[in-house]
Amino acid sequence: MVKNLSEEEKQKLQVMEQEIKITKNMSRIKHKVAVMSGKGGVGKSTVSANLASAFAGSGFKTGVLDSDLHGPNIPQMFGMEISQLQCTQEGIKPLETDDGIKVMSTEILLPSNEPLIWRGPKKTGAIRQFLSDVLWGDLDVLVIDCPPGTGDEPLTVLQSIPALDGVVVVTTPHPVALDDVERSIKMVQALNIPVLGVVENMSTFKCPHCGEEIPIFGKNGGKQLAEDLNIPLLGALPLYQNEDEGGLKNPEFLENFSKIVEKIVEVLDK
C-alpha cells in the first residue's frame, strides 16, 4: 500500500520529475549559450537576436529563449507577429521566425505592454517550464537571453541547464557598465561555467553622414576588461542612428556577428 505523500514530498517529487524533463529536452540541443550582462541598456537582447540570426545564417538550427521575463523584447527584435501559443499533450510549441528560428518569450504570453508582476519563485518556475515543456526539438544552438544583473533569472538559467556551453557577456565601453559586467562575469566564474567572451556593444557611434566613428561612451573599455580578466574579446560593435539601420537588417552589423559566431563555434567545437 502506497502511503499518502506530504506536501513537501509532493513538491520534491515534482522537482525531480521536472529535472528529468529538462535533462531530456535539453539533451536534444547540441549547444546552449547564455547571453548576459550585469548592466541593463547595453543592447543584450539585440546581441542575442543577432547572434541567433547569424547562427541560423551559418546553417545552424537555432532557437532563442527569452528569459528576460520583465523586459521581453526578442519577438519584437525579429519583427514577429505574435500569435496564440499552441499547447499539446507533448508540450508547448514555440513560435518561429521566417528564417526558422524557434522563439519562446513571455511577450508571447502577455497582452501588449502589460507588466509581469511576479516574485522570485514564480519567475524561477516559468524559466524552468520553458526549459522542460517547450518543444525545442533537435537544435544545433539555443541562445538564452538573460535579464541584467545577478539575481533569480540568470541564476536559474545557469544552474538549470545541463551542459551549458558557456556565456557571452555584453558590455558598453562606459565605466559604469564595465563595473556591473565584471560582477556578472565573476558570478559565472563562481559557478564554474565558461565565459566564451566579451562583446563590446556601442563601441563607437557611426555618423550616418560622414561615416566617422565617435567613441561617445569611452574607448576600448570592453577590450581592456577582456584583457584584465583574460577573456576573449569576441567583437566591438558600433552604435547606429536607429534600430532599422543597426538591427537585423544592416549588412555590416550582420557581418560583424558572423565573425563573432565563427569565434564562438571555434570554442564550442574544441
UniProtKB/TrEMBL annotation:
Homodimer. HAMAP family: Mrp_NBP35 (MF_02040). One of its GO terms (molecular function) is ATP hydrolysis activity. ATP binds at G38, K39, G40, G41, V42, G43, K44, S45. Binds and transfers iron-sulfur (Fe-S) clusters to target apoproteins. Can hydrolyze ATP. Belongs to the Mrp/NBP35 ATP-binding proteins family. Keywords: ATP-binding, Hydrolase, Iron, Iron-sulfur, Metal-binding, Nucleotide-binding. CDD domains: Mrp_NBP35 (cd02037). GO terms for biological process: iron-sulfur cluster assembly. The lineage of its organism: Archaea, Methanobacteriati, Methanobacteriota, Methanomada group, Methanobacteria. It comes from Methanobacterium congolense. It comes from the Archaea. One of its GO terms (cellular component) is cytosol. This is Iron-sulfur cluster carrier protein. It holds the Pfam family ParA. InterPro entries: Mrp-like_CS, Mrp/NBP35_ATP-bd, P-loop_NTPase, YlxH/NBP35.
